[in-house]
Amino acid sequence: MDTAGFVGFVPEPNCGRGTVGILWSCVVTIILSTWTTLHNDISPPGSSRWRWTKSKLGSAIYCALFPEALAMVAIMLLVRARRLSASIRDFPGWSQFSHRQSFLVVQDGIYSKQSSEIRHNRIHRLLEPDALVRLVQTTGLGPEDMGFPTDDEIEDRSKKDWLLKSISISQTLWFVANVLSRVVQGFQVSLLEDLTIAYAFCGLIMLIAWFDCPQDIHQAFIVDFERGSENGTRNEPQVDQRQTPNPAPKQQDLIIKAIPTVPMILVTMLLFGVFCGIHLAAWNYPFPSDGPGSAWTWRSCALATFILGFPSSSYLIMAVDDHVPEPSSLPRIKRLAVLLIMFLYVAIRLFTVFLSLYAFKNAPMGIYTKPSWTAYWAHL
């Protein structure tokens, strides 16, 4: 395939590819693969819809710029939700506690009523995973006693649109198949398409990790764990008589175990390695010069994504795991080093997106040649 020569804007042909067609296909795939899989935290009770909308839009912009970071967040939330399920199912009455209910707690979707003195002020307290486990252990209340939402109640509030998700999956699979067909048949792929494949990969990670997670719930649920005590039901810790009696567990043993640092760092390394590898797949992309849009610039950005993104995410994991202090409490030099790495990572990611678009200014002609078998298929 002769790929000599570079062109700028190419209008849409009757049967082929043009600049607008490539841009449209990539933008639609990125939006669908990120927006439909996005699960932001749930707003507190009494919050306005505008607050939730701002949070949703902010998360969408963050996901559009840094999908690999949000994919890592999705994995971390999945681990926390599964650990909550495993911990609370050991208590009587909680054996059917589902992953969907665990995700609801992890997503700040459960608030408890405060004591009766301030209840008239409608002040509620966020019920975090650790607090829920301690509460169940100390009071012996079951989910029905405190009015914990069931899967059906959660599903009623959730705004998951399976039709839109199906469209998103179909478009993403079609896009990936189209790009793979070009690679197999020796046709060139634009940098923006290479970048879109990386977005699709992160979208797939988020889709799998958040499969059981409720989506687009505007306001959190409110549970009343005092209700069971007032009604005289199970206000003392219960012991499962089927198990061999053991000494009472220590308080720290009841807390949800922190995210395992070493395995999560390995998962982070794998995630960023694949994300970086997708960028490096365009290693031989022909650039017209050694200017801003040059081969070494793209390769350097791809490698920097791993070099800077991996330690940044690893620090986030260790911070969540309480192995390291928050950046604000670090010594000045270490705090500046952490902030500098994160700033450089953000700058590199933004420049990578810019470079993928800038490449259309002088792109090789080969990216506009279309394989014959796709010429008769509709393409978004």
Automatic annotation (TrEMBL):
The chain crosses the membrane at residues 21-39, 59-79, 196-213, 264-285, 297-317, 338-360. Residues 229-249 are annotated as: Disordered. Residues 230-245 have a biased composition (Polar residues). Keywords: Membrane, Transmembrane, Transmembrane helix. Coiled coil: none annotated. This is Uncharacterized protein.
